[in-house]
Amino acid sequence: MHLARGAATRVGVLGAGAMGAGIAQVAAANGHPVVVVDASSEALDRARTGLDHAMRRAVEKSRLDERSATAIRANVRFSAVSDSGSMEAFADCDLVIEAIKEQLDVKRDAFARLEAVVGAECVLATNTSSLPVAGIASACRRPERVLGVHFFNPAPVMPLVEIVPGLGTAADVTTQVRALVDSWQKTTVLASDTPGFIVNRVARPFYGEGLRIHDEGIADAPTIDWAMCELGGFRMGPFSLMDLIGNDVNFAVTSTVFHAFYYDRRYTPSITQQRLVEAGRLGRKTGLGFYDYREGAVQPKPSTDRALGQEIVDRILALLINEAVEAVLWRVASPADIDLAVTKGVNYPKGLLAWGKELGFERVLTRMTALQQEYGEDRYRPSALLRRLARQDPPKFYT
Ligand SMILES: NC(=O)c1ccc[n+]([C@@H]2O[C@H](COP(=O)([O-])OP(=O)(O)OC[C@H]3O[C@@H](n4cnc5c(N)ncnc54)[C@H](O)[C@@H]3O)[C@@H](O)[C@H]2O)c1
Question: Is residue 72 scored above 80 in pLDDT?
Answer without folding.
Answer: yes
